[in-house]
TrEMBL record, chains A, B:
Top-level taxon: Eukaryota
UniProt source species: Oreochromis niloticus
GO cellular component, one term: presynaptic active zone
Signal peptide (residue range): 1-32
Recorded coiled-coil stretches: none
Protein name (record): Glutamate decarboxylase 1-like
UniProt record, GO biological process: gamma-aminobutyric acid biosynthetic process
Cofactor dependence: pyridoxal 5'-phosphate
Keywords, in A-Z order: Decarboxylase, Lyase, Pyridoxal phosphate, Signal
One GO molecular-function entry: glutamate decarboxylase activity
Protein family membership: Belongs to the group II decarboxylase family.
Gene3D superfamilies associated with the record: 3.90.1150.170, Type I PLP-dependent aspartate aminotransferase-like (Major domain)
Length: 525, 525
């Protein structure tokens, strides 16, 4: 036992069995002692087992309300080598023992995005099955380009995409899709495909051969639409930003007007992005009205349901996406509302074959036609990537684990949490809702009004002071590490908190805690 | 013990300790019993421990030469539900026991890319430390957009990029970069940045405001250059493909001529891609000669060192990339020659600030300027993605584990393997080299000449028959599962095998095995 080289873990029972495995090794071990070294098997098992103990400890701790959400340090503090945690890259190997310490420290100084009181991002939670799926994925360590090296994962992608398309409401013989590295890239695909659909010559001749295109998206939509327009050579000023109503939903009449104005200016409209679940308000654009407009002007209709797509899994909430079946393409991120580990985002496309036509280059070192199997399963040439990470297995395993019904219940629970928060905010005078309506998604936006501002009349002075409240509370929150929530201004509205629920671990007590904590941290402001 | 719900694993010692953990549970467990369920901790530990046993078994088996590289089944066979392995997505939860069976099956029907006899892709091997890094990454489950949610990982990215830039040979105060989802996206960044550097108005006004651009790359370069040109709206026909010599290196004089011809046609050259390590031949373009040309025409010089970048880690081989320090941008994939698990690709950019200027949109819900820390560490707006997977931790941990010197030795070993194969091929009359020179990288390209073709004179009949040899042997290889190697035609050359070495597990005995196996499988052709 004295010779055991690794630092201790939390489980005496596990510790013992690991000792049995690696008690043959000497005091200082390095990675060269691991597989593929001959006789490296026991050392490999021992090392990975130690790591797993650390990871299990982290997973359990993330679920404990008494633990911190984060242990904040400024960049300069971490760079200075806090308590011996050095980021530097050495010339010579470090010991396995040191690596395990580094792993512990990395988790210690990070953020527990799975903590029930982490409300900072649309992606939160730490699904155990999803984590298991990722561990397997990284152990399988393969690429999504050909069936030859990813037989199971490519079939899993096919099964998932088909299921997701049927949930969107497309016919069985319709559609195609891909899993992409995040929703922004999925949205980029939708614009790329729309452009190719109307102007296939763009692939060879470029944008120079096309008229000046115009695309449309709401002022509340995600910035990825503009970003993609910049990348694709369309230009951000050719993205027309359409007005929304008080709730953050696009105004169909405003879209009509915008299209007409663009045409008058000589631009050629080709694409409309509708958002199903906006980033800040969680608003759902009126999809049927937008579909009518797209139909009458022969425009590509994309639905960015990166955030709202999860609601399709719930019988109670899926009607909020009515009309999505009329879209030409849909972005849907299971890594958000469905709690799948990062990243997991799908672009679904109604027109079969378009992805392949648009992106195919037929590199002969990968996509040989004389292979001994059905090469239609070599789907890599549909992608704008070459190598593509396996993002499907974790979702598939979670689907097996929960069933469609389980995902539905999970979504329902998150929306119940949002309603609970909404109810509490209405009851408590220290808070003000950003808009009065009941939340449609799990986003709830609100201001905390500190005592010193409560008697101030509305106006620029109050606004100026209120604008500083959320950042100051957030700063204190980070220092304390008790809870984490995001804030931002929007349009003419000064900084407000946005709470989002996508973590099934969150309970009503966590919501009460959040509100009490904000009050505590902001009492003197 | 009778009540233990999981299927058996390979290690009795481990089994015992897991039983101690979960013996309280009932016979059929489902994911709802795991965390965040109250009292879910023991079940979570037990389940993940069972999974880890499966993964450890796979890792060990991947390193055993007696095990198969793959257990091939056609798509229709896997879809039919081989031995109960069902890909279908249920409405109701499956048991944890069934999930573990699914995990086992997924690995069983997949490909062991870490097997010492897997030569099929530029990425191979299964680095234990790298896998450990990925397990931690997926457990931490966070995003690379802001310091707020990824303090440690963003600092690790900074440290790695700085180190890689210094290895490329740039001054300390020069440069920027990002880790991207694969080399194709890294290459896309280089073109995006070059375009913005010369024409910053493209971001807002699009390609319509620009002259007709031309870019240059060699006929042996990766297809990602053309693919990116299609995506970015430049158009594939504005990518001028430049002639290479017999070895696959770009001919500088041909590049000069191509630039002149493009200018005569009214195109505006702006970008040259030089390849350091081509995909098939492993050739290194003459970087200094290209840099001279780029300098004289004021063109952006990009070096696609996705495959060859690893050689920079070796004192013995880094001179093959002489001149790389003169590039404006470099793609370097540690997931290839350095053996880091998929994906891990960096785009390095010499001009500081350009990434940010080119891609920034300043979304206020993420990139608030009134945060309580130095927001220059919120680097997410440099990216064309929004959420970005953490691809840096595994590389950082491997660097700690091996040191720079360890990576150097690993690269040297792979190139020694290539030389050994080259020597063997010269000695054995059943094989013919595609070109005579000693390999510069770890790629070795060759034909197997079956007995029936050995007496045939060179010409179209022999070529036609030889073209079918590699695919047929590959088909048999896949059925047998003993070894895996890629093939392709190139230019006028009919199908040939390309062997590549990036797996440190591969030994000379594996190379002998490969050649003997090809002879066995092709003897009757």
């Amino acid at each position: 036992m004295k010779n055991f080289p690794f630092s201790g873990g939390p489980e005496p029972a596990l510790r013992l069995c690991v000792c049995v495995c690696v008690c043959v090794c000497v005091c200082v071990s390095v990675c060269a002692d691991l597989l593929p070294a001959s006789c490296g098997e026991e050392m490999t098992r021992g090392f990975l087992q130690e790591l797993v103990d650390i990871l299990l400890g982290f997973i359990c701790k993330s679920n404990q309300r008494s633990s911190k959400v984060l242990d904040f340090h400024h960049p300069h503090q971490l760079k200075e080598g806090l308590e011996g945690f050095s980021l530097d890259l050495p010339d010579q190997p470090e010991t396995l023992e040191q690596l395990l310490v580094d792993c512990r420290d990395t988790l210690k100084y990070g953020v527990s995005t799975g903590h029930p009181r982490f409300f900072n991002q649309l992606s939160s939670g730490l699904d155990v099955i999803g984590v298991a799926g990722e561990w397997l994925t990284s152990t399988a360590n393969t690429n999504m380009f050909t069936y030859e090296v990813s037989p199971v994962f490519l079939l899993i992608e096919e099964v998932l995409l088909k299921k997701m398309r049927s949930i969107v409401g497309w016919a069985d013989d319709e559609g195609d899709g891909l899993f992409c590295p995040g929703g922004t890239i999925s949205n980029l695909y939708s614009i790329l495909l729309a452009r190719y659909h109307f102007y296939p010559e763009v692939k060879t001749r470029g944008m120079g051969a096309l008229p000046r295109l115009a695309m449309f998206t709401s002022e509340h939509s995600h910035y990825s639409v503009k970003k993609s327009a910049a990348v694709l050579g369309i230009g951000t000023e050719n993205v027309v930003v359409v007005k929304c109503d008080e709730r953050g939903k696009i105004i169909p009449a405003a879209l009509e007007t915008s299209i007409a104005t663009a045409k008058e200016k000589g631009l050629v409209p080709f694409y409309v992005n509708a958002t199903a679940g906006t980033t800040v308000y969680g608003a759902f654009d009126p999809l049927n009205a937008i579909a009518d407009i797209c139909h009458s002007h022969t425009l590509w209709m994309h639905v960015d349901a990166a955030w709202g797509g999860g609601l399709l899994m719930s019988d109670r909430h899926r009607m909020k996406l009515q009309g999505i079946e009329r879209a030409c393409s849909v972005t849907w991120n299971p890594h958000k509302m469905m709690g799948v580990p990062l990243q997991c985002s799908a672009i679904l496309v109604k027109k079969r074959g378009l992805l392949q036509e648009c992106n195919k280059l037929g590199a002969q070192y990968l996509f040989q036609m004389d292979k001994p199997y059905d090469v239609s399963y070599d789907t890599g040439d549909k992608s704008i990537q070459c190598g593509r990470h396996v993002d499907v297995f974790k979702l598939w395993l979670m689907w097996k684990a929960k069933g469609s019904d389980g995902f539905g219940s999970q979504v329902n629970k998150c929306l119940e949490n949002a309603e609970y928060l909404y109810d509490q905010l209405q009851k408590r005078t220290e808070f003000e809702l950003v808009f009065k309506n009941k939340p449609e998604h799990s986003n709830v936006c609100f201001w905390y009004i500190p005592p010193s501002l409560r008697s101030l009349p509305p106006g620029s002075d109050r606004d100026r002071r209120l604008h500083q409240v959320a950042p100051r509370i957030k700063g204190r929150m980070m220092e304390k590490g008790s809870v984490l929530i995001g804030y931002q201004p929007l349009g003419t509205k000064v900084n407000f908190f946005r709470c989002v629920f996508s973590n099934p671990a969150t309970q009503q007590e966590d919501i009460d805690f959040l509100l009490d904590e904000i009050c505590k941290l902001g009492a003197d402001l």
